[in-house]
Specification:
- The structure holds 3 protein chains of 3 kinds.
- By secondary structure, chain A is mainly alpha-helical.
- Chain A has one domain (4-95): Helix Hairpins.
- Chain A has helices at 4-24, 28-53, 57-87.
- By secondary structure, chain B is mainly α.
- Chain B has helices at 2-23, 27-47, 51-76, 96-121, 134-137, 139-147, 151-172.
- Chain C has one domain.
- Classes of the chains: A mainly alpha, B mainly alpha, C mainly alpha.
- Chains in contact: A-B, B-C.
- Chains A and B meet through α1, α2 and α3 of A and α1, α2, α3, α4 and α6 of B.
């Protein structure tokens, strides 16, 4: 059996990759994808911990995280579409002014 | 032992695909690589004896959310990312802010690994996992807990989805001229 | 190697072979039924009654030149048909097509007649079907042609819209059968009411069955919902730029998907391999008969009904089919609680 610590380290690595994506990329779509990576890293933690403690709650939290991720993706992509209509760009730096 | 090998294979797939996701200039390729990463995670969930989570990972993430991403990328018809710096420079290091960001991310990984490593020496729950009781893996148990202990959260989730739906429609709608 | 393992491998190869063949057979059936409905002969010259026509088609496709548009994304262009056909084959893996058997006493323990016995089979089918969308969307995008792109976009929107109704129709059956395993669901339909009516879920779920079939036709992009490849508007839709074997893969995927949807409908609604007159060991004959009837229905629909308009399809999916499916699920749940099924 793979010990829990390895799952947690894997999940930490994935979370950091997601964070890195949000920090360094200048493309709204990629930033949203990076957020998905972070959410998935958290999901892995929940499932692995739930498995280690023999509890079902970890899997249920994952269920809720996925719902939130779906809602977040829908709203986030709608915002991206709305922004793209105004500026024809996906670079977040193009949207620094509150009014146009 | 086969578990360990599978763990490295699937975990490696997830990590490599995720790195490539943020290293791509073409958003379509990013989305596809993220699906590969999800496939790796789904395999890990099977390894963790959580078949239900593994399957809904594919159905919801790969089958619905990522199709939405793909749809938007195709709709906006954005090809390669056009940045103000020349295409030749590596994706990560062309602005001061990005270098700071990369540094912070590097710091975070060091911190997390250090925290986990030191917790590992404390023993306790970080030892090898025992065989899960069969009840934990069954869909029936999950469903039961979901509609009893977590019933309130479940109902709130439905409101969240409704709000997200209305919000998405309002935001993406073209204003009537 | 244990006999059970050998039997498993034999079943696997058998299913693969039969699915490959089913595509060829369906092409022939499609053309013959079309001819029947239009009062002409159909393929007639190749072999007796044109029986060798599918073979001729395959040979023609194999010897055609592989074309790829210059502006296409080479990797994704090659990957797309592979995803399509893989998803089509993989979905059938969890579908049982007969009662557990010992192969006339060759094995010590009976093994189920399916490639993989998964206890969340219904969800697995759902997951693999949703992967099939990618083949179509990617072929549309990577071809770098406007017709293909429009076809790909249409199909992704269509498949996501109808997947919801599809899932809800499935959900109602799961409530009745109280299981996620297809084998258990089929075995829940054994026996008769009043010694006459078979205990098939279709009699408890007529609305669910109709929703499932409509959504299934939309999911497999068949007429009257074949917008992704509406030839009057989009040339050939998502596979406009494909030729030779790559085109054949899409073609094959479409027919195998039809077979899978029919097989799942048979298992969920029509009692699978249960039927009168035949012993349980020959139940697969009933299974074949039922799947064949559903496939004929598919072809019949195609040559009878004209294509919808795209906006009609979307408003039908979201404003009619989905509410009915949700209502059906609610009523079924209430019924299960009330009658304690």
């Amino acid at each position: 059996m793979v010990p829990l610590s390895q799952y947690l380290i894997l999940s930490a690595i994935l979370f950091v990759i997601g964070t890195l994506g949000v920090f360094v990329r200048r493309n709204l779509i990629t930033i949203l994808l990076s957020i998905e990576i972070m959410l998935n890293a958290v999901n892995l933690t929940f499932v692995a911990a739930g498995r280690a403690f023999g509890a079902v709650d970890g899997q249920i939290i994952v269920f809720f995280v996925m719902t939130v991720a779906a809602a977040e993706a829908a709203v986030g992509l709608a915002i991206v579409i709305a922004l793209f209509r105004h500026r024809e760009s996906l670079d977040p730096d193009a949207f620094t002014s509150l009014k146009w | 032992m086969p578990d360990q090998i599978l763990f490295y294979l699937l975990g490696g797939l997830a990590v490599v695909a995720s790195v490539l996701v943020i290293g791509q200039r073409n958003p379509i390729h990013s989305v596809l690589l993220l699906i590969a990463s999800f496939a790796g995670l789904s395999g890990l969930y099977v390894l963790l004896q959580a078949p239900f989570v593994a399957v809904i990972q594919i159905i919801i993430y790969a089958g619905a959310i990522m199709v939405l991403f793909l749809f938007v990328v195709m709709l906006l018809n954005v090809g390669r990312e056009d940045t103000d710096v020349d295409e030749q420079s590596p994706v990560f290091v062309h602005r001061v802010s990005m270098r700071v960001g990369a540094l912070l991310a590097g710091l975070l990984v060091v911190e997390l690994v250090w925290a986990l490593a030191s917790a590992g020496t404390l023993g306790g729950v970080f030892g090898p996992m025992s065989q899960a009781p069969p009840a934990v893996t069954s869909v029936r148990t999950i469903g039961h807990a979901l509609f009893t202990d977590y019933a309130f959260a479940f109902e709130v989730t439905s409101i969240l989805i409704l709000v997200a739906m209305v919000g998405a429609v309002v935001l993406a709608r073209r204003e009537a001229k | 190697m244990s006999p059970t393992l050998i039997a498993q491998i034999v079943i696997l190869l058998f299913v693969f072979f039969m699915l490959l063949n089913s595509a060829a057979i369906m092409v022939y059936v499609e053309r013959k039924v079309a001819a029947l409905l239009q009062q002409r002969f159909g393929p007639y010259l190749t072999g007796p009654h044109g029986l060798l026509q599918p073979l001729a088609d395959v040979i023609k496709l194999m010897f055609k030149e592989e074309l790829r548009p210059k502006a296409a994304d080479a990797f994704l262009f090659t990957l797309a048909p592979v995803i399509s056909v893989t998803a089509a084959f993989a979905a059938f893996a969890v579908v049982p097509f007969g009662a557990s058997t010992t192969f006339f006493g060759l094995l010590d323990h009976p093994i189920p007649l399916q490639v993989a016995d998964v206890n969340v089979a219904v969800l697995v089918i759902f997951a693999i079907t949703s992967m099939g969308v990618y083949g179509i969307v990617l072929s549309g995008w990577s071809s770098n042609s406007k017709y293909a792109l429009l076809g790909g976009l249409r199909s992704s929107a269509q498949m996501i819209s109808y997947e919801l109704s599809y899932g809800m129709a499935l959900g109602a059956v799961l409530l009745l059968g109280n299981s996620l395993s297809l084998t258990e669901l089929v075995n829940g339909q054994a026996g008769y009411w009043f010694h006459v009516i078979p205990r098939w879920f279709v009699f408890l779920q007529p609305v669910g069955f109709v929703i499932f079939m409509i959504a299934g036709i939309a999911e497999t992009n068949r007429a009257p919902f074949d917008f992704p490849e509406a030839e009057q508007e989009l040339v050939a839709g998502y596979h406009t730029e494909y030729s030779s074997m790559r085109f054949a893969m899409f073609f094959m995927a479409e027919y195998i998907n039809m077979v899978t949807v029919s097989a799942v409908a048979t298992d969920l609604f029509l009692g699978g391999w249960h039927g009168p007159f035949l012993p349980a060991s020959l139940g697969w004959i009933w299974f074949l008969v039922k799947v064949g009837a559903l496939l004929f229905f598919y072809v019949w629909m195609r040559w009878t009904l004209p294509r919808y308009r795209y906006d009609q399809l979307m408003s039908f999916g979201w404003k009619v089919l989905l509410p009915i499916a949700a209502l059906n699920l609610l009523v079924t749940a209430a019924g299960v609680i009330y009658f304690g099924a």
